């Protein structure tokens, strides 16, 4: 009887796989219905560090194309203070010095603190460094570890968070990421940071509070930034018609080192991964700077050196929720044929405040007259993952298109984060963690097979 039962099960699985008859799984996990509200400004997570002109909102990001530089950013409130960063490696007690720059901005009736950015260069790979900011008044010391040298089998684990905000749920998401035993070494952030623009006149004090909230992670490991729509801060009705003003003053990225001409699209290499960051809210039509850049960038990706090709973009191309439905469609039409041609492993997006993972699918055959406009299974195509479930003030996206489309492998309306753990040139273990579970529990997992080195179907081979 056991054998018969198994043959029925296997037969069903074979049929399902062969015919691609239904969508994947819509999780039956039901999140408790409760409002997602911002933590008040006097919450302990927003506390200002003590001391005159103490640096706050400290965050770091990779400062070059290969992981031998780190941009350190911080804000001082009382006076400009020093732009200097003192730093030293774990094994050397002699301190070295790097000089940064200072900027600030006004937004309606708000004036920012003194925003410092300092790129520390010529670092050694795979080395723990301590760094000190606030020289001359109140100093604060943090540390980071540089990634290993770029190479095909360098293991590395990325965290993934999107649409974080600063609610009680955001705090849970960040804590779960910090406590996750998978131990992300750098965080790939897929856009929508503070949600300050949800407040009257885009109350920029909420940019400051977000910086203080996230510092417990952003000061210690690089967060790789993608611009979302909540970074636009475009409000001509109050005289603020310069897009991305708070974002570009507060967050510096190494866009020039990948030949980009704007901070919204760029690439970096970390360990065995080549990461391309795209901009949903900058022009991407033919002849635009972003289009030209991506066209030149993709042929430069050397899979012998960096087997894993990862793309970050805010607005998802494949999304079966009834939120932001098809907003990513125009960019998909422009770039999807390239992603298939160059065998992108995975595309991470945010924007939709829920979780979803796709099958490996593409939809590039349509030519206006042939009517071929349905996603099909494609082993050269990326997996698309929506990870916009950080837990911001706008709440969960829990309204899905029904039935679940065939291309959608798994979806669930819960807050959480994910990790992408590269083991070697062929295998990476991906796990999604919902906030209601224990830190080590995964709500969705997938072993990724590299599209260049091991382009097999993850579901039917090993
Ligand atoms: Fe968004």
From TrEMBL:
<protein>
    <recommendedName>
        <fullName>Purple acid phosphatase</fullName>
        <ecNumber>3.1.3.2</ecNumber>
    </recommendedName>
</protein>
<comment type="similarity">
    <text>Belongs to the metallophosphoesterase superfamily. Purple acid phosphatase family.</text>
</comment>
<feature type="domain" description="Calcineurin-like phosphoesterase">
    <location>
        <begin position="157"/>
        <end position="355"/>
    </location>
</feature>
<keyword id="KW-0862">Zinc</keyword>
<dbReference type="InterPro" id="IPR041792">
    <property type="entry name" value="MPP_PAP"/>
</dbReference>
<keyword id="KW-0408">Iron</keyword>
<keyword id="KW-0732">Signal</keyword>
<dbReference type="Pfam" id="PF00149">
    <property type="entry name" value="Metallophos"/>
</dbReference>
<dbReference type="InterPro" id="IPR008963">
    <property type="entry name" value="Purple_acid_Pase-like_N"/>
</dbReference>
<dbReference type="Pfam" id="PF14008">
    <property type="entry name" value="Metallophos_C"/>
</dbReference>
<feature type="domain" description="Purple acid phosphatase N-terminal">
    <location>
        <begin position="55"/>
        <end position="146"/>
    </location>
</feature>
<dbReference type="InterPro" id="IPR004843">
    <property type="entry name" value="Calcineurin-like_PHP"/>
</dbReference>
<keyword id="KW-0378">Hydrolase</keyword>
<keyword id="KW-0479">Metal-binding</keyword>
<dbReference type="GO" id="GO:0046872">
    <property type="term" value="F:metal ion binding"/>
</dbReference>
<dbReference type="InterPro" id="IPR029052">
    <property type="entry name" value="Metallo-depent_PP-like"/>
</dbReference>
<dbReference type="InterPro" id="IPR039331">
    <property type="entry name" value="PAPs-like"/>
</dbReference>
<dbReference type="InterPro" id="IPR025733">
    <property type="entry name" value="PAPs_C"/>
</dbReference>
<dbReference type="GO" id="GO:0003993">
    <property type="term" value="F:acid phosphatase activity"/>
</dbReference>
<dbReference type="Pfam" id="PF16656">
    <property type="entry name" value="Pur_ac_phosph_N"/>
</dbReference>
<keyword id="KW-0325">Glycoprotein</keyword>
<feature type="signal peptide">
    <location>
        <begin position="1"/>
        <end position="18"/>
    </location>
</feature>
<feature type="domain" description="Purple acid phosphatase C-terminal">
    <location>
        <begin position="381"/>
        <end position="440"/>
    </location>
</feature>
<dbReference type="InterPro" id="IPR015914">
    <property type="entry name" value="PAPs_N"/>
</dbReference>
């Amino acid at each position: 009887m056991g054998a018969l039962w198994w043959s029925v099960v296997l037969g069903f699985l074979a049929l399902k796989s062969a015919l691609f008859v239904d969508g994947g799984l819509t999780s039956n996990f039901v999140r408790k219905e409760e409002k997602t509200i911002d933590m008040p400004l006097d919450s302990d997570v927003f506390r200002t560090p003590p001391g005159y002109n103490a640096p706050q909102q400290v965050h770091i990001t990779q400062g070059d194309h290969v992981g031998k530089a780190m941009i350190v950013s911080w804000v001082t409130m009382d006076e400009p203070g020093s732009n200097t960063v003192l730093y030293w490696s774990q094994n050397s007690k002699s301190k070295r010095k790097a000089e940064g720059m200072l900027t600030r901005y006004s937004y309606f009736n708000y004036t920012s603190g003194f925003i410092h950015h300092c790129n520390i260069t010529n670092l050694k790979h795979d080395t723990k460094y301590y760094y000190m900011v606030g020289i001359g008044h109140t100093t604060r010391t943090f540390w980071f570890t540089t990634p290993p040298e770029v190479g095909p089998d360098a293991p590395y684990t990325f965290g993934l968070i999107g649409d974080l905000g600063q609610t009680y749920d955001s705090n849970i998401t960040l804590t779960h990421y910090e406590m996750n035993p998978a131990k992300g070494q750098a965080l790939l952030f897929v856009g929508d940071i503070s949600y300050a623009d949800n407040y009257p006149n885009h109350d920029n004090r909420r940019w400051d509070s977000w910086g203080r909230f996230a510092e417990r992670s952003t000061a210690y490991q690089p967060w790789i930034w993608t611009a979302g729509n909540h970074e636009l801060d475009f409000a001509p009705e109050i005289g603020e018609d310069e897009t991305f003003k708070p974002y570009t003053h507060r967050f510096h990225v190494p866009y020039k080192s990948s030949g980009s001409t704007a901070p919204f699209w760029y690439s970096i290499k970390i360990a065995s991964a080549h990461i391309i960051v795209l901009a949903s809210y900058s022009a991407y039509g033919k002849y635009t700077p972003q289009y030209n850049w991506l066209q030149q960038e993709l042929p430069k990706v050397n899979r012998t050196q960096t087997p894993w090709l990862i793309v970050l973009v805010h607005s998802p191309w494949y999304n079966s929720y009834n939120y932001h439905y098809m907003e990513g469609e125009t960019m998909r039409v422009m770039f999807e044929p390239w992603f298939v041609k160059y065998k992108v492993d995975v595309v991470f997006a945010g924007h939709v405040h829920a979780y979803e993972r796709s099958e490996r699918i593409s939809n590039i055959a349509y030519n206006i007259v042939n009517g071929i406009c349905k996603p099909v299974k494609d082993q050269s195509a990326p997996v698309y993952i929506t990870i916009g479930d950080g837990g911001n003030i706008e709440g969960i996206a829990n309204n899905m298109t029904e039935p679940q489309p065939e291309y959608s492998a798994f979806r669930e309306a819960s807050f959480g984060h994910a990790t992408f753990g590269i083991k070697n040139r062929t295998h990476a273990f991906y796990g999604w963690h919902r906030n209601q579970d224990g830190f080590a529990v995964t709500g969705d997992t997938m072993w990724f097979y590299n599209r260049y080195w091991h382009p097999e179907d993850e579901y039917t081979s090993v």
